[in-house]
Design a protein that fits this description.
Oligomer: single chain
Largest sheet: none
Order of helices and strands: HHHHHHHHHH
Number of helices: 10
Number of domains: 1
Helix content: over 70%
């Protein structure tokens, strides 16, 4: 019963962050599931299972948050369509790599990524626009592949990379970047989940859903979807800079725990 409360709480936090920052919530879901699966039953594949399950839950939360952003006209569909094919390619690459990495190494790598994300959020980009000329397609190609690969590799929705890319390199206002990142997270989560299911079934034939724990993913998604629209609505009403800094401290603590474990 305690596990259900924990998963529900994680879903609420992840859903709020997904809507508020467009980050998918994987930075909260993955560490929680790693600790839960290592304690219970999954052993060697706890990290892969946590990442796959995180992506599955992010798919549903991304739909809920991006729909709210869409209603507020905060999704740049043309930019998303340009990025999406390369995000898909990167997601397939990332899920293939993750399925063959040592779980302990993957956990420490994820901890290092969390530290980078935390530092990025401490110095969160302000609402401004930049000039990049006509060099957009290289950004779409390289940026999309990197976003997809890293997101699938670590079970995140990609917002921590998508938002800075959209603002700093593609001239998008911060709120439009958050909404577009939420929609991009749906693409990442869908193809990433499929990749982790396939990888898991190839390595462990007794697991019908591969590296995805459907019960945990659905419970997190249920609570996340309830709160994600609220987070998305708040993103259009409040200054999120202070909240970003508090969250960055939480990420730093989680990062250190993962790296030292």
């Amino acid at each position: 019963m305690t596990d259900y409360f924990l998963l529900g709480f994680v879903g609420l936090i992840a859903g709020l962050l997904a809507g508020l920052f467009g980050i998918g919530g994987g930075v909260v879901i993955v560490p929680a599931l790693i600790f839960l699966f290592e304690r219970d039953r999954q052993g060697l594949y706890a990290t892969q299972l946590a990442i796959g399950s995180s992506l599955a839950s992010i798919f549903f939360m991304g739909l809920a948050s991006s729909f709210t952003h869409y209603k507020r006209k905060a999704v740049a569909w043309k930019t998303l369509c340009c990025l999406a094919p390369f995000i898909v390619v990167g997601t397939i690459i990332g899920s293939q790599i993750a399925g063959h990495l040592n779980g302990l190494l993957l956990k420490k790598l994820f901890g290092a990524v969390l530290m980078v994300i935390a530092i990025t959020m401490l110095f969160r980009i302000s609402e401004r626009e930049c000039e990049i000329g006509t060099w957009k397609w290289p950004v779409y190609i390289v940026g999309g592949i990197l976003i997809g690969a890293i997101s699938a590799l670590f079970g995140t929705g990609g917002g921590t990379m998508t938002v800075p890319l959209l603002v700093l390199l593609l001239d998008k206002p911060i709120r439009i970047a958050v909404g577009t990142a939420s929609a991009a997270g749906v693409v990442i989560a869908l193809f990433g989940t499929i990749g982790f299911i396939v990888q898991g079934r190839q390595q462990l034939s007794e697991m019908p859903f591969g590296f995805v724990a459907p019960q945990s993913a659905l419970l997190i998604a249920l609570f996340g979807c309830m709160i994600a629209p609220l987070g998305a609505a708040l993103a259009h009403r409040i200054d999120t800079q202070m909240l970003s800094r508090f969250f960055a401290v939480l990420l730093m603590i989680t990062s250190l725990l993962l790296i030292r474990s």
